[in-house]
Amino acid sequence: MKSFLLLLLTALSVTSCPQVKEEVQNLHPLFDISEKELMESISDLPAASREKIAAKAQVFLDLILQLLELPEDLLILADKKHILGKQYIPPDLINLEGYSFSLAGNKLELRRMIIPDLLAMVESSREQGLELLISSAYRSYSRQELIYNNNVRSLGREIADRESAKPGHSQHQLGTTIDFGSIDDGFASHPSGIWLAEHGWQFGFSLSYPPDNEKITGYRYEPWHYRYIGRHAARITREFFLNEQQYFLEFWEQKSSFFRKIRIR
Predict the structure, then answer these.
(1) Nearest to residue 219, comparing CAs of 145, 144, 161, 147?
(2) pLDDT tens for each residue of 183-196
(3) Of the listed ranges 8-12, 184-188, 204-208, the one predicted with least confidence
(4) Residue 109 dihedral angles phi and psi, to the nearest 5°
(5) CA–CA–CA angle 257, 258, 262 (5° rounding)
(6) CA-to-CA distance for 13 and 28, rounded, in angstroms?
(7) 115 CB contacts (<8 Å, ≥6 apart)?
(8) Do the beta carbons of residue 138 and residue 172 sit within 8 Å?
(9) E strand segments, 18-100
(10) pLDDT confidence of 265, banded at 50, 70, 90?
């Protein structure tokens, strides 16, 4: 009888005790996100990227926070799968002749918003005795159409598709992309090309088509082709996305709305 009463009291004490809810801690004071939720949000990334983000989650989220302050069109995708459209024209194009750039032509234009960082980068390169020649900048839809069709005629469609974008798919239409120097493979070993590859990211410029990554980008290696994505985006690309602009931009296309939603204001 005593043993029965003891068992009964034990059962009653267990059922009467309130269940302790597992406390889930946020990783960042300005994001409503747990470690588990963060890892779920990056599950499609390469393993190396996931490991880096897990190891430095606070730094990663700090950078994400900065990206949310950027104009949304700065990080839009323009690649073989994403088209800008014939009517897309950047809102703040300006002629570069009024600035102290080395230009390969007199009708080169870029978005006004990237000029401060471009000027800073050019000044820094000049301190090293180098000159960054701007050979190509903004291209309209119709201009890219002309270039692509000429390449098809002279090179054949297969080669043309590796070396030039179809109209509406070119990063140059964004007004934030620059071809530097000689626009050939030799730029990779030129002192200006070497410097740009090492330091461009510090000023927000990211190499769009790295070597040995044609399966990812759709284009062969172009050591002269840089897109401005901003200093924070260039850093997060370098630190967490294997320095692969395409990986980062695809991630941002898919996940930026998620981070906007969980941001705490």
Answers:
(1) 161
(2) 999 999 999 999 99
(3) 8-12
(4) -130, 150
(5) 115
(6) 38
(7) 94, 99
(8) yes
(9) 26-28, 31-34, 93-95
(10) confident
